[in-house]
Amino acid sequence: MKNKSMKYIMKGRKRRHLRWLYVTVSLTILLFIVSWAMLLLGSTIYPVKDVISVLLGEEIKGASFAVHSIRLPRMIAGLFAGFAFGIGGHIFQTMLRNPLANPNVIGITTGSSAAAVFCIVILHTSNAVVSISSIVGGLVTVLFIYVFSKGKSFSIGRLILVGIGIQAMLNSFISYLLLVGAQQDIPAALRWLSGSLNGSQMHDLPPLILGVMIFAPIIILLGKQLSILELGEQAATSLGVRTDRTRLLLIVSSVCVISLATATTGPIAFVAFLSGPIAKRLVGAGYSAIIPAGLVGANLVLAADLVGQFAFEVRYPVGIITGIIGAPYLIYLLIRMNRKGEL
Amino acid sequence: MKLNHTFHAEGISAGYNDRTVIHDISLEVPSNKINVIIGANACGKSTLLKTLARLLKPTSGEISLDGKSISKIPPKQFARMVGLLPQSPIVPEGITVTDLVGRGRFPHQSLFNGWTTADTEAVAEAMETMNITELANQHMDELSGGQRQRVWIAMALAQQTDILFLDEPTTFLDITYQIEILDLLTDLNRKRGTTIVMVLHDINLSARYADYIFALHKGKLVKEGEPSHVITPALVKNIFGLDCTVIEDPISSSPLVVPIGRHHVFQNNVYS
Q1: Which stretches make up the ABC transporter domain (chain B) (predicted)?
Q2: What are the residue ranges spanned by the domains of chain B?
Q3: Nearest 5°: phi and psi at B224?
Q4: Are A237 and B80 a contacting pair at CB < 8 A?
Q5: Among residues of chain B, what percentage have pLDDT more than 90?
Q6: Are B126 and B187 in contact (CB under 8 A)?
Q7: Which residues does B165 contact at the CB level (< 8 Å), separation at least 6?
């Protein structure tokens, strides 16, 4: 009897585990394809073997410059930023049990942007300082949202509304900075308002890459704890999770990856918002969607950037494209929440 | 196979923010028994349960398990000995029954190792005990209230603790399901010797299913012992403010509280 039910249970578990595996592998393959497309496509389309030789260090006139100075940094920036936005957004949405409660909507990315813009436009500081202040900006924004939305009892609706308010304030601060900033900084405005991979350079990337390498594993290892936290504070505590410590570690790690990504590419609109829900739908409930969310994020950014570069007569920055995809979903969620009386 | 445990609380007070809800309670949880905490609304039943299960830090006093202060036991180790099913845990969206029950295995797993046969075995056993094996691959949102509650209890069982706390496990359930849950918990106690401590709302079900009762009134432990000793008209009057008469339950011969009230009193064959 017990053996029979063990087999029955394992069958279901295996099926769901396989689904997770298929999704993750497919997303990785897809990511590989769009990453290659990023390297091959451009004003000149180079053959695969040329790009490979260039990557291996060979000099090919034209191709070497295009790949090393433009396409490769652009691809790496998009890949890591997308992954960072994907996992960071998913952690917030899962921990706060609401897809609206993510860094894009409640203004955490805007906080990082504001700090980064301030450093670049006003203080003219180095890259390292920009990265660190964008992390600080993100964390301070989280703290503000927390303090202002605390009230007598915690309400997710209030947190979201406070976050939207803070975001609006920070956005006007960014606009102000760009206005008082030097003329040559103005083209950067779009990057800081919606995010762009234009002008990504190799030497800008190490902080982001390092940050993702350090914090993404921490987040992934805490996935099991996160899935227990989903059962609520009391159930999680009685299952032996140190809830406060886990939550703090998850929030700080998520804010770090998101802020570093924001400092590099600007707040690419809605990637943190869309990746989690898409990944969750793909893997189904019960299995950790952290890695898939990161992969969805990276795919989204690179695919949207390809669309922005080549689908229209004018080249659009990636944030415009992701914004077009994300905005309707945001409106849909707001309407649904309003109907349920959660706002 | 089951070990005896000594679970002891000495002079504990606890509450929320500045408000102390339970005052200076000392008790010893009888091992391998079904223990029920009774009392009126807001008397501190749940607070006592949460404090004992370490969800709430006592503001004063000391709780010890097998002679060791529970605040000194690492959380995961504690979770392998003591489980608690909260009153309203949250169902993650779209989760299946097996996966939810499987979450109960968390304290037995370490950072890197994955799912083991021992985990499957524990989950299968918990699901059989709660009679939900055939629901294994269903989604939680497709189940009835009674089925869901059985799944939650199965999750707590998969934790394989010797001591199990339950916060009002029968609330919001139809009477049939209430009896079913309490029968299943009794099976668990009789077969495995699991020590059960639960808060129940219904005093008559408490009197029938409990081996031992703790009666709380305004945050203080006013009486404890076997049901036949604890459940008296005087106690019911004291803690619930209800006039009643206590008769013998014709089925279980445990005490049965019959409230008096102001209407429908039938005496000497004459309605008054």
Answers
A1: 7-243
A2: 7-259
A3: -145, 155
A4: no
A5: 72
A6: no
A7: A238, B49, B52, B53, B82, B83, B84, B85, B196, B197, B198
Q: What residues in A contact B98, CB-CB < 8 Å? A: 9, 12-13
- pLDDT tens digits for A188-213? 666 777 788 887 888 889 999 999 99
Strands B60-65 and B220-225, bridge-based pairing: unpaired
Checking phi first, is residue B166 left (phi over 0); if not, alpha (psi -120 to 50) or beta? beta
Global pTM exceeds 0.80: yes
CB A145 within 8 A of CB A153: no
Total length of chain B: 272
Give tens-digit pLDDT for B53-93.
999 999 999 999 998 999 999 999 999 999 999 988 999 88
Q: Given an 8 Å threshold on Cβ–Cβ distance, is B54 in contact with A237?
A: yes
Looking at the complex, report in whole angstroms how far the Cα of residue A239 sits from the nearest Cα belonging to chain B. Answer: 5
Q: B127–A9: do the CB atoms touch at under 8 Å?
A: yes
For tokens 């056993």, the residue is: B125
- Best of A220, A231, A242, A336 to mutate (most B CBs within 10 Å, chain B): A231
Query: CA A240 to CA A220: how far, in whole Å?
Result: 19
What is the token pair recorded at A268?
């690419």
- Kindly state the tokens that stand for A82: 């997308």
Q: Could you tell me which residues come within 8 angstroms of residue B267 by beta carbon, excluding any fewer than 6 positions away?
A: none
Contact list in A for residue B90 (CB cut-off 8 A) is 97, 230-232, 235
Spatial separation of the C-alpha atoms in residues A323 and A308, rounded to whole Å: 11
- Find the helix or strand (DSSP H, E) in which B122 lies: helix B117-129
Beta pairing, strands B34-38 & B212-217: parallel
Residue B214: which residues within 8 A CB-CB, separation 6 or more? B27, B35, B36, B37, B38, B48, B221, B224
